[in-house]
Task: structure prediction
Amino acid sequence: MFKINDNYLKLPGSYLFSTIAKKVNVYKTEHPDRQVISLGIGDVTQPLAPAIIDRLHTAVDEMADARTFKGYAPDLGYEFLRTAIVEQDYKARGVDIAADEIFISDGAKSDSANIQEIFSADNRIAVCDPVYPVYVDSNVMAGRTGIYDPETGLWSDVIYMPCQAENGFAPEFPQEEPDLIYLCFPNNPTGAMINRAQLQEWVDYANRIGAVIIYDAAYEAYISETDVPHTIYECEGARTCAIELRSFSKNAGFTGTRLGFTVIPKDLKSSEGVALHSLWARRHGTKFNGAPYIVQAAGAAVYTEEGRKQTEEQIAYYMKNAGIIKEALAELGYTVSGGVNAPYIWLKTPKEMTSWEFFDYLLENANVVGTPGSGFGPSGEGYFRLTAFGSYENTLTAVERIRNI
Ligand SMILES: *Cc1c(COP(=O)(O)O)cnc(C)c1O
Result:
């Protein structure tokens, strides 16, 4: 008689975004006359840029011709894409990363979930709180998180690093020593960023205690300030302690097209002296058969002059929305942060409302949907996330409705 991996049964039942969808559907059924606007989505809405579409078309044509047809992609991904990444994301910033340290994948969600497989089951993880739920859930599936306490929303074996207004939404070194440290900057959900000196402290800390930092830089393209790092490898010593995750989803609209990559420097070794690069290469080669050629070709188009210009325009479009939301809420007396280096606005709920009370309040009084901060972790309670991924028109309307509450 087969048995399941019962770690899956430990996962808390209701998933944040399905709870939101249910509540919104009930509201819409009861109020069919009202037009609900979502500022809760973590997905892009602008179509793929013309340079990307053009390259997709020509790549499809190549697949129809025996002379240019492509079968399985090389294990690490196509050289043309890895070279473009090295040149523009790393060398251009004075960072030393080689093309064979880059693993092309189908996105950062799966990489962030899968990367834990190459570490011991008894390694302790540290996460920011609030946090992108995938990091913890994938470690629950791996049996690394201990017991869940529904009262506090905390796992007994996870080390939490609260990020709230008091510490500028920046994690502090935990009291217990972690083995794996998940950091995400610019941050989802808080929209916060840390500066280069702060990230350098994390790199020094990880090297000192022999931990690995898993650095999720999915929102790198949204950075507007100058003193903040675009990649963790801008920090000295990061090559011996950091794995970086990148995605084409938020910077170039590939959420439905799927493309990302993971960087593992060859200098990154375990306490036994094993290079993580070789373990991930083994895992990648065994459980992943490559991102599609046409998608990798389209990904390389992001690095062309035209592609860069067009994707930068899309990011500017979203960031204009972010500015509109942030400014209006601040004017109305809300305490807001984020929205400068990330498409997320993080606000303190007014009048001591809980995150879910404010969700209902906003839905009923402004017909606007956002995301309750408590859904990202206990320290998100009393906060609320709005995103800049809607259309300009909807953003203006939503803000106007909030003004008129
Ligand atoms: C959107 C997002 C990603 C990107 O995931 P993909 O699988 O590449 O679409 C990764 N990390 C965070 C924190 C995100 O919000």
The longest strand covers residues 242-247. The longest helix spans residues 305-331.
